[in-house]
Specification:
36% of the residues lie in helices and 26% in strands. The protein is an alpha/beta fold. The radius of gyration is 17 Å and the shape is globular. The structure holds adenosine-5'-diphosphate and magnesium ion (MG).
């Protein structure tokens, strides 16, 4: 039991309509890990995240959260089991304020101590506290990413899926976001499964990583192994 991964994706095929995008992808996330998925555009990284979160369902293979088969669960059921998803785009309610966005993050919880949870998010992202009455749509890309991450953390999840949190951000903001992700994970927080274009940085931060290409597993290993692998470097790290 103790050796059971938190998340196990086993030989999953999935896609849209007639087109199959993932062809038997396998991967796992263990308790407390940061796991990074890298790979070229169109590899199926976002499709994999959507399939794990129940927005798509596997045609073959299974997805387990601990010992529970969630392959055919809805996102709503999956959130209830402690998994959150920060999508690549449209990940905040632009018409709501920062504070309202955070409250939406925890709306599923009946007896949540909202104030305490919000304070925890504000500690992580003091900038959100300063701007808590501002509409999210009026904020910069980096600040919106903080709102999206903060909303996910309101649920006190055991696993957070993040799809390209650094996309479109300035180098300085990318650094801040990555530093915060590491901090969240290190301070006894959730395991994190992160998809990134910024392969170097995300592998540096990750305990383990996977390279996905054309909907298939290509490489896997510790973040450091993948960074040191000459073939991974040449093909996927621009080395
Ligand atoms: N909603 C969709 N309907 C049909 N095809 C899609 C949809 N979303 C993505 N695809 C296709 O799936 C493939 C993988 O896309 P995606 O998972 O977004 O890749 P990545 O995130 O690795 O860039 C692409 O060929 C893309 O065109
Ligand atoms: Mg994507």
């Amino acid at each position: 039991m103790d050796n059971m991964p938190l998340l196990k994706v086993d030989s999953v095929s999935a896609g849209y309509g007639d087109s199959e995008i993932l062809h038997g992808v396998s991967m796992e996330v263990r308790e407390g890990e940061i796991v990074s998925i890298i790979g070229p555009n169109g590899a199926g990284k976002s499709t994999l995240m959507k399939t794990i979160f129940g927005l798509l369902h596997p045609r073959q293979g299974t997805i387990h959260l601990r010992d529970k088969d969630i392959s055919h669960h809805s996102p709503y059921q999956i959130v209830g089991l402690g998994m959150c998803y920060v999508p690549q785009v449209a990940n905040v309610f632009t018409e709501l304020t920062v504070e309202e966005n955070l409250e939406m993050g925890a709306f599923l919880l009946k007896n949540a101590n909202m104030d305490e949870r919000k304070e925890r998010v504000y500690e992580l992202f003091p900038r959100l506290k300063e701007r808590r009455r501002q509409r999210a749509g009026k904020m910069s890309g980096g600040e919106r990413q903080m709102v999206a991450m903060g909303s996910a953390l309101m649920l006190d999840p055991t696993l957070v899926l993040m799809d390209e949190p650094s996309a479109g951000l300035s180098p300085k903001m990318v650094e801040l976001i990555f530093e915060r992700i590491e901090h969240i994970n290190k301070s006894g927080g959730p395991a994190i499964l992160i998809v990134e274009q910024n392969a170097q940085l995300s592998l540096q931060m990750a305990h383990r990583g996977y390279v996905l290409a054309a909907g298939e597993n290509r490489f896997e290993g510790t973040g450091q192994d993948l960074l040191n692998d000459p073939e991974v470097g040449r093909l996927y790290l621009g080395g």
